[in-house]
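Design request, tokens follow.
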């Protein structure tokens, strides 16, 4: 078996718009050297370009119509039941299974959506999303205890509370420290498990892009990623490197209230508008309110927030609600995402569940899916496409939605019937999408403490002995091509079912001469790990996604 090593280092949310100015200033020397010795280009993400969808395509080489992950939560059956996206609901065979069959050992550090962890020849430390209390984070299970014995408590994510309580600087430093530690953990496990392939996802940039108002913090995490890339190159100078991103990034100026637009255009009907704020959110709202709105800081703010938090938690909902409403009128930005709606399903034709742009039709009026058979399906979709196409971004003057896709335009495969009916692509606008907000506000609001979001175009840099030295002019690849190319590097025939293709243009002429691409027919598949979340775990998963502003 070959000893050749390949490192897939993912910069979550990485894009050339962010990296290029730093490269020009010489502030990313290690990435710069890799680019010079290899090939750089744009890596096209999935639509929508959100982490679970994109990483599922990275893991399987399949388009979402085959792997079945279309958003942060996924419909798991035709009856319209939804669950948080996880390995449980993902279809398709992960790339490490193909590599393992060929005797190639694989390590995964912080790759999103493989939760719950599962046996493989190598090791796995799961990435988001994970139930908060779960200790089931690694395979083999003993790795977690070993990591904690050496480095202290291990969290998949830097806790978002740190941002609310200590501020953006502490949050940024914590991310840098977290990623340094993940790099060290990777080095340790690469040796111990003697893996040939390692994939690691650095998430700090994604978080800072969402939550930092100033670009300097983004630069700080990028410089830190560059240092960690440098540590890999120094340690493994003869390895192949595949630097990639799951999607790109853009900065925001405002937010478009998609849920409200649907309501005002007669597609969506709400029952009682309620303001039930769970305990974990009270702290968030109060910190926005006291800090950003009233400008309080330091210990005084902390003490007042704790006190108010306890009071709000203690008073009965009937009494607390009028207070929240009054506060919401004064400081709507503190309450972004914090309104809980009851959708009146019998009176609703279309609704949204996340800020990804996925629109779900409800033409059987049961709050369930399977609307495609309804006679008015095409007409409702057409009306929605026409209406949303006309929405203009007041901050840029351009359209908010570059295109509103019918699901069959972008997906193909067995899972398409579980896909959202329309996918509204706002990823080139300066607007975030908000599922809902108080109906008294118009469709556009300020950016609501999210300062950046995703973009479809991300980046890749391929360098090392097996890759071509083409530099960087106009090259493009799809995120689904990364696993296909990886399999080819290790002589694994490409499964016919895979939508991704071997990036033959970016492999060295020598390598391609010696290794023509082989395709495997027919596909021997059937990967469906059986494991269900407990209700408690499911709740923790959605809480976590709400904390991050995705739901
Ligand atoms: Zn991501």
């Amino acid at each position: 078996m070959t000893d050749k090593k390949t490192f897939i280092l993912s910069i979550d949310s990485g894009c050339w718009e962010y990296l290029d100015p730093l490269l020009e200033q010489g502030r990313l020397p290690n990435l710069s050297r890799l680019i010079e010795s290899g090939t750089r280009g744009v890596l096209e993400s999935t639509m929508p370009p959100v982490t679970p969808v994109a990483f599922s395509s990275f893991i399987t080489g399949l388009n979402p119509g085959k792997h079945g992950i279309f958003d942060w939560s996924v419909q798991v059956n035709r009856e319209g039941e939804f669950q948080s996206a996880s390995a449980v609901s993902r279809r398709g065979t992960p790339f490490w299974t193909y590599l393992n069959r060929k005797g190639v050992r694989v390590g995964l550090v912080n790759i999103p959506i493989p939760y719950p962890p599962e046996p493989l020849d190598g090791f796995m430390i799961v990435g988001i999303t994970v139930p908060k209390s779960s200790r089931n984070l690694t395979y083999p299970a003993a790795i977690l205890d070993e990591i904690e014995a050496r480095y202290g408590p291990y969290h998949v994510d830097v806790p978002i509370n740190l941002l609310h309580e200590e501020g953006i600087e502490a949050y940024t430093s914590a991310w840098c420290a977290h990623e340094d530690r993940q790099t060290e953990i990777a080095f340790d496990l690469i040796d111990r498990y003697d893996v040939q392939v390692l994939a690691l996802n650095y998430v700090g940039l994604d978080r800072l892009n969402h939550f930092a108002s100033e670009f300097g913090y983004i630069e700080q995490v990028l410089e830190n990623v560059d240092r960690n890339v440098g540590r890999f190159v120094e340690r493994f100078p003869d390895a192949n490197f595949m630097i990639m991103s799951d999607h790109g990034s853009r900065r925001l100026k405002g937010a478009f209230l998609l849920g409200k637009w649907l309501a005002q255009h007669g597609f969506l009907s709400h029952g009682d508008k309620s303001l039930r704020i769970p305990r974990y959110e009270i702290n968030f709202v109060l910190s926005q309110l006291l800090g950003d709105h009233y400008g309080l800081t330091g210990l005084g703010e902390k003490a007042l927030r704790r006190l108010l938090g306890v009071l709000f938690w203690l008073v009965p909902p009937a009494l607390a609600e009028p207070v929240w409403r009054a506060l919401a009128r004064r400081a709507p930005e503190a309450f972004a995402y914090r309104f809980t709606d009851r959708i009146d399903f019998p009176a609703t034709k279309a609704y949204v569940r996340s800020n990804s742009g996925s629109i779900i039709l409800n033409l059987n009026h049961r709050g369930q899916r399977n609307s495609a058979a309804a006679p008015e399906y095409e007409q409702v979709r057409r009306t929605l496409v026409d209406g949303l196409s006309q929405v203009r971004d007041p901050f840029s003057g351009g359209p908010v939605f570059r295109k509103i896709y019918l699901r069959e335009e972008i997906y193909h495969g067995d899972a398409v019937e579980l896909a959202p009916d329309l996918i509204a692509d706002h990823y080139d606008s300066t607007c975030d999408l908000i599922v809902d907000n108080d109906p008294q506000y118009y469709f556009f609001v300020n950016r609501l403490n999210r300062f950046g979001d995703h973009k479809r175009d991300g980046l890749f840099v391929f360098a090392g002995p097996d890759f071509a030295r083409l530099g960087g002019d106009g090259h493009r690849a799809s995120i689904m091509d990364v696993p296909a190319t990886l399999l080819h590097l290790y002589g694994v025939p490409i499964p016919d079912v895979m939508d991704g293709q071997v990036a033959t243009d970016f492999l060295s002429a020598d390598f391609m001469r010696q290794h023509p691409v082989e395709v495997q027919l027919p596909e021997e598949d059937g990967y469906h790990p059986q494991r269900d979340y407990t209700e408690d775990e499911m709740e923790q998963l959605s809480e976590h996604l709400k904390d991050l502003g995705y739901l």
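Comment from the thread starter after seeing the answer: thanks! The chain is about 40% helix and 20% strand.
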